[in-house]
């Protein structure tokens, strides 16, 4: 039942009038009308009605008459009008997102507790040695404080902290509960301005304060906004796409579409054709290296050719850059929206910021900025009308006293001080006008650049930024879609009439740090949800991969893709000898492991003392013996003239990455976690499994999607280092060992 509130009713109206109006005017079934309570004093009535009748009653009767008097009708709680299934989805994901947000805050607290201040600054989540200065007020009188380095003229360190983030300010107790938190309002290379809810404590003006990232509030806000659209779509497109998300509307092909390409293979062409033909959405599933990104790019080109405005999005900045790079090669006008610092250097000239800088309206704004900065300098020579000088006088009063040229003190303020404050205020209104003009010109420049673009590229989260608020697209293409949570992917999903999602749910799912939230559905991507709801009609699979030697591909194909993957002949037999690496001697295990004839190698530490370690305050692990083995292999590979750029070391554990980085001197060899390396490839991958214990505990190696990613990054060789007595207690790893024994080299160290 939904409670409707009827307001402005006449005192003479009784329950019969209301029931009569609902039945006769709206056609409501009398069984759908429940209890009626009338409060004559407030001229209001509350009526319970069935959900099925509520919307129609409101639509017909709001502003209409009951008993000859015009009344207003609305639901007591607007959410009650929303279908239960929609509310369930909305409530569930709002709660999960909230859990994730709280977990993120807890993680920050933990990191602040255990890392030294400079370690946290090096991680890009804190700024040290700052000093605060009042910077007036903003957004409804919120006090603004501008922080800059306590060493004047020094640039601030590069951090991930950005406008909209919630930050915490402290002096020497970064976890004290009374530390103020505020929102970053503006950031430049030299200063960061924070808006507080109320006046912050005095200490923030001391030299040496510290600013910590607390939680990336902007991302959460944008995800919450996307969920709001599920509950309350703002237009027909959002409503239609919400209905698809909840399977209230089925998958539909709008038209048959023919597409030709000299580059793509048949399964890729089919995927593009289905995508072009689909009415609302389409899914392209592609195992590693099968060309999801190139297919996305061909699809985008075709859509642009047909006149579409396209948003190309992905969860990570790296994936967006990959798309951008390929789109630029196609000579499309592509604009990358997002903070330039997070964009690959060689692609920065395609960022919105860079393009805007060159726009004539922006250049005009710059000139005005110079002029206004002269005014600001001049303003500094007058007394700022702060509380202690103005003593309760309003701006208007100060101006009036100054105009009247009074010669006596007012509230104890001398005429000179009044004159100075008036001059300050006069300049301030000029400055305000300048800034309005500057803002208008800058906005013009941004809109002009964006309007001219064929394709706009951004991360899923940035697709929800204010800059793109007024933009709606014909098509959004979401690459890496299996790595985005539903609330994140819904951002680009709702921004276009049609969405194409590309991904592989056999690779790693979205990163969710709160285990409860992950278990209850936050780790399930929109791609997976749509594929479960709409089945095979809405999905194409790519099957030819262009990355791996067939033996590297084999295990993954058998175990994750029903043996459906095929290696393109151009890569099927690729090995290290093509790069001139093929040691003949077998003097040491490193040379043997690097032999070209073994595309897969398992180096087993079962006979060694190679136990894992877990450091205090860390939920991660490292393994020093495995690290030494890795470094030996790297040294040998480079000694054999292998290019450092062709090698990467990946491992599930961050602590192992850190340990390896501490000891590795080969600067161009990338060392990272498996999760961070998803979507990437190298000629050779060295993998360190780390786990070695008596309990056969393999931690999150148990998620086989991580194994799948780890094994599918290499083109010509994978060297897997691990303790079989721990990891091979698990069937899939036992299978891997058997497989490598069959197709490659198994070696007990
Ligand atoms: N039809 C094709 N002909 C030749 N090369 C291709 C073809 N399709 C893809 N490739 C090549 O295969 C490689 C992998 O393609 P891409 O990065 O698009 O794959 P992906 O499916 O996105 O990979 P991942 O799952 O690892 O992200 C690229 O070098 C690409 O140029």
3D structure, described in words:
One of its GO terms (molecular function) is RNA binding. It comes from Halanaerobium polyolivorans. Belongs to the DNA2/NAM7 helicase family. The protein is α/β, with parallel strands linked by helices and 749 residues long. The protein has 26 helices and 27 strands. The strands form six sheets. The chain has a seven-stranded parallel beta sheet with strand order 15-16-14-17-18-13-19, with helices on both faces. Strands 7-8-11-10-9-12 form a six-stranded antiparallel barrel. A six-stranded parallel beta sheet has the order 24-23-25-26-22-27, with helices on both faces. Helix 3 runs antiparallel to helix 5 (217-231), helix 5 (217-231) packs across helix 15 (486-494) and helix 7 (266-277) packs across helix 8 (292-305). The longest helix has 38 residues, at 415-452. The chain is globular and about 100 Å long. The termini are far apart. Adenosine-5'-triphosphate (ATP) is lined by residues 263-265, 268, 286, 288-294, 504, 546-547, 679.
Notable traits:
hydrolase; ATP-binding; binds adenosine-5'-triphosphate; single chain; globular; six-stranded antiparallel β-barrel; RNA binding; SF1_C_Upf1; seven-stranded parallel sheet
Short description:
This protein is of the alpha/beta class. The protein is 40% helix and 20% strand.
Shape descriptor: globular
How many strand units?
27
Instruction: List the ligand species.
Output: adenosine-5'-triphosphate
Please give the alpha-carbon distance between the first and last residues: 71 Å
- Output the radius of gyration: 32 Å
The helix-and-strand class reads alpha/beta
């Amino acid at each position: 039942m939904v409670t409707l509130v009827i307001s402005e009713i006449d005192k003479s109206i009784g329950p019969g009038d209301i029931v009569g109006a609902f039945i006769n005017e709206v056609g409501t079934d009398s069984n759908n009308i429940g209890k009626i309570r009338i409060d004559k004093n407030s001229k209001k009535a509350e009526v319970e009605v069935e959900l099925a009748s509520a919307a129609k009653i409101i639509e017909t009767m709001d502003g209409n008459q009951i008993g000859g008097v015009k009344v207003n009708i609305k639901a007591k709680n607007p959410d009650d009008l929303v279908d239960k299934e929609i509310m369930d989805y909305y409530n569930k994901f709002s709660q999960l997102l909230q859990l994730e947000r709280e977990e993120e805050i807890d993680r920050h607290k933990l990191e602040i507790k255990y890392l030294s201040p400079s370690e946290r600054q090096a991680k890009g989540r804190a700024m040290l040695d700052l000093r605060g200065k009042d910077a007036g007020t903003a957004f409804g009188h919120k006090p603004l404080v501008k922080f800059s380095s306590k060493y004047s003229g020094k640039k601030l360190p590069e951090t991930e902290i950005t406008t909209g983030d919630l930050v915490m300010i402290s002096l020497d107790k970064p976890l004290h509960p009374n530390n103020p938190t505020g929102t970053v309002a503006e950031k430049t290379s030299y200063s960061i301005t924070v808006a507080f809810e109320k006046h912050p404590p005095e200490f923030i003006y001391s030299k040496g304060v510290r600013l910590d990232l607390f939680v990336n509030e902007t991302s959460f806000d944008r995800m919450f906004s996307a969920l709001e659209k599920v509950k309350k779509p703002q237009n027909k497109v959002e409503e239609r796409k919400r209905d698809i998300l909840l399977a209230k509307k089925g998958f539909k092909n709008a038209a048959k579409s023919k597409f030709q390409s000299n580059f793509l293979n048949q399964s890729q062409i089919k995927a593009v054709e289905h995508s072009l033909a689909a009415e609302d959405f389409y899914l392209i599933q592609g195992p590693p290296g099968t060309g999801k990104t190139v297919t996305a790019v061909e699809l985008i080109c075709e859509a642009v050719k047909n006149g579409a405005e396209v948003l190309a999005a992905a969860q990570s900045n790296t994936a967006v850059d990959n798309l951008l790079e390929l789109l630029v090669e196609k000579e499309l006008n592509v604009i990358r929206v997002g903070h330039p610092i997070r964009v690959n250097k060689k692609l920065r000239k395609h960022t919105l910021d860079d393009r805007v800088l060159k726009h004539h309206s922006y250049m005009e704004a710059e000139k005005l900025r110079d002029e206004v900065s002269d005014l600001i300098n001049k303003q500094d020579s007058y007394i700022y009308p702060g509380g202690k000088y103005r003593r309760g006088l309003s701006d208007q009063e100060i101006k009036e006293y100054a105009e009247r040229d009074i010669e006596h003190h007012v509230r104890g303020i001398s005429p000179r001080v009044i004159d100075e404050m008036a001059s300050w205020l006069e300049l301030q209104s000029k400055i305000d006008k300048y800034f309005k003009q500057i803002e208008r010109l800058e906005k013009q420049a941004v809109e002009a650049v964006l309007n001219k673009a064929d394709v706009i590229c951004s991360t899923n989260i940035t697709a929800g930024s204010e800059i793109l608020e007024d933009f709606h697209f014909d098509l959004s293409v979401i690459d890496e879609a299996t790595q985005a949570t539903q609330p994140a992917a819904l951002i680009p999903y709702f921004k276009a009439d049609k969405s194409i999602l590309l991904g592989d749910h056999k690779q790693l799912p979205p990163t969710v740090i709160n285990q409860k939230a992950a278990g209850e559905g936050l780790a399930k991507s929109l791609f997976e949800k749509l594929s479960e709801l709409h089945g095979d009609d809405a999905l194409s699979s790519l099957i030819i991969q262009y990355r791996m030697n067939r033996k590297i591909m084999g295990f993954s194909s058998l175990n994750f893709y029903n043996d459906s993957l095929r290696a393109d002949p151009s890569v099927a037999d690729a090995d290290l000898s093509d790069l001139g690496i093929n040691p003949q001697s077998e003097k040491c295990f490193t040379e043997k492991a690097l032999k070209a004839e073994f595309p897969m190698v398992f180096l087993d530490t079962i006979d060694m003392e190679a136990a894992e370690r877990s450091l205090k305050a860390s939920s991660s692990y490292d393994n020093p013996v495995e690290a030494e083995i890795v470094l030996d292999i790297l040294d040998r590979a480079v000694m054999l003239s292998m290019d450092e750029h062709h090698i990467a070391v990946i491992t599930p554990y961050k602590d192992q990455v850190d340990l390896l980085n501490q000891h590795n001197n080969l600067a161009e060899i990338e060392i990272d976690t498996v999760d961070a390396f998803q979507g990437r490839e190298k000629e050779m991958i060295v993998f360190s499994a780390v786990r070695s214990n008596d309990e056969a505990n393999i931690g999150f190696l148990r998620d086989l999607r991580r194994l799948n990613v780890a094994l599918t990054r290499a083109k010509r060789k994978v060297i897997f280092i691990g303790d079989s007595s721990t990891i091979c207690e698990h069937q899939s790893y036992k299978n891997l060992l058997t497989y490598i024994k069959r197709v490659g080299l198994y070696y007990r160290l």
